[in-house]
Design goal:
Length: 513
């Protein structure tokens, strides 16, 4: 069948459906994948045709695709309620919903489940295959990059595709990072930002110095090295954010640059501004150099002065989020004879502090995570109910949303009782770690340290809230969410020969991937 220029001939439900490039295409291209799946005005056939139109999916606003992690690959999922992903006859992850599910983990109430019929799986659209992996090729885990131990090679770098059935990772996305050459050495997953991953290059698994960093994009297969900032692990210590926290800043609207923002902590876990050594360092891809930015942060920290020290700490494990063109993360600042300040600091593409937002906590509340969902800042705090008996028991988490960014108007959105996560009344905050908030729905993702599992909590559903996604193992080292970015970045375009020169070092006796 011949088609006019600008049209595509395809078949959906046995009928040829040409899509003209023009207003119709332009309107659809402005919708996110979530909105396309939820739209009642767009049939499933037209939706699938449009999403499969060459490069159309890559031009759409993206949602949470899955998680990268370092740990053991058990190749099995643990589903809540004994559900194995039923009622999805068409194989698209819709689980019987008329609009086809959104493939992003969002359903009719915008919660991110991709399921409007309330099945007992908690709304996941990753139905199990015969091997229980849930992936289109038999496994939703992809391995690589971390060297073998005495475990048959099972310990390594993996990817869990949450949308493996409804909207799997494109074939040209390399979740194994095989495009990164072997000579970069051991890669330790640190964090992600808007589709880019940040790794630290190390000399080993226990005591080591930093050899620099790798920034890469699995969707475009681009990667670049970043030289060491000069920070080293203290003698006889393991690398831990008690000593160092590093954030990655990347704005897809300005793909020509990225930043690394690094904080050096002293032996007590604080930024020590009293010494001569810099404690805040920023790397800019535009200059290719690290700069000492301690003076700016020293001014910010003055309210926390105590015995000529500025008691400020930054913990990257509490999360970060990109919102309004700025990277937001949590900073704790101690003040003499006063309650500690919990602040949300926002930095711009130059690494400058542009906004400081206060988050008020009482003495029985602990800040545990910051993220963004549906265009608003979200913060999670843990509150301990039984203060007199054991303040670690009967934990409840509160999710607050910044309803008005300019007026700093916080409202409580949800409460998460620890018993919902553990199935028992007593629950310690040490048992659970928040690793992500769904950017388009009402999901919070935790790691259950007791069982070594990644779990998903549905905040707006009254029953069947918890879905156990997969087993990470008790020795997992990092979990970071992944939202794809299909646009190439000139900041990651470098000469391969130069990269090899920068990465060369003695690998004798070291693990290799």
């Amino acid at each position: 069948m011949e088609t006019k220029q600008g049209e595509m001939e395809t078949v959906a439900s046995g009928l040829p459906l040409p899509i003209p490039e023009g207003p119709f295409f332009d309107v659809l291209s402005r919708l996110s994948i979530k909105d396309l799946h939820r739209s009642t005005a767009l049939s499933r056939e037209w939706r699938d045709v449009f999403i499969n139109f060459p490069d159309s999916r890559k031009n759409l606003p993206q949602t949470l695709q899955g998680f990268f992690y370092i740990g053991y690959d058990y190749k099995r999922h643990v589903h809540g309620g004994g559900n194995d992903g039923d009622s999805d006859d068409e194989g698209d992850g819709a689980c019987g919903d008329d609009d086809g599910g959104d493939g992003s983990g969002t359903d009719e109430d915008g919660d991110g489940s991709g399921n409007s019929n309330g099945n007992s799986s908690g709304g996941s659209d990753r139905d199990e295959d015969e091997d229980g992996s849930g992936n289109r090729d038999g496994s939703s885990y992809y391995g690589g990059h971390v060297g073998n131990r005495d475990d048959g090679g099972n310990y390594g770098f993996h990817f869990l595709d949450l949308l493996a059935k409804s909207m799997p990772v494109p074939d040209d996305t390399d979740t194994e990072l095989s495009f990164v050459p072997d000579h970069v050495g051991i890669m330790d997953l640190l964090c992600s930002c808007n589709g880019l991953l940040l790794f630290g290059c190390t000399e080993g698994s226990e005591n080591y110095h930093s050899l620099g960093y790798i920034v890469c994009n699995p969707a475009t297969k681009q990667w670049v090295t970043v030289p060491s900032s000069g920070w080293v692990v203290p003698d006889d210590e393991e690398r831990d954010e008690e000593f160092e926290s590093t954030f990655l800043f990347f704005d897809p609207a300005v793909p020509s640059r990225y930043l690394l923002i690094q904080f050096w902590h002293d032996e007590d876990g604080f930024l020590n501004f009293s010494g001569d050594e810099g404690v805040v360092h920023i790397y800019s891809s535009e200059t290719g150099e690290w700069s000492n930015r301690s003076s700016e942060w020293k001014q910010f920290a003055k309210e926390g002065e105590q015995d000529n020290r500025y008691l400020v700490t930054v913990k990257s494990r509490l999360g970060s989020c990109f919102l309004n063109g700025m990277l937001h993360f949590l900073v704790e600042r101690s003040r003499p004879n006063k309650n500690d300040d919990v602040l949300i600091v926002a930095v711009d593409g130059e690494g400058r502090i542009c906004r400081v937002i206060h988050w008020k906590l009482d003495m029985f509340t602990e800040a545990v995570f910051i993220g963004q969902s549906q265009g608003r800042l979200h913060c999670i705090s843990a509150y301990f109910i039984d203060k007199d008996k054991d303040w670690r028991d009967r934990m409840i988490m509160h999710v607050h949303v910044l309803q008005d960014y300019d007026a700093e108007n916080w409202i409580k959105k949800f409460g998460i009782w620890g018993g919902e996560l553990s199935g028992r009344e007593e629950c310690r905050i040490e048992d659970y770690e928040v690793v992500a908030i769904h950017p388009d729905g009402n999901f919070v993702y935790f790691v259950d340290h007791r069982k070594g599992e990644l779990i998903q909590h549905h905040m707006s559903r009254q029953y069947e809230k918890v879905l156990r996604l997969c087993t990470l193992g008790h020795n997992y080292r990092a979990v970071t969410p992944y939202v794809p970015c299909f646009s190439r970045s000139s900041a990651l375009e470098t000469d391969e020969a130069l990269q090899k020169t920068l990465c060369e070092f003695d690998l004798d006796g070291l693990w290799s991937r």
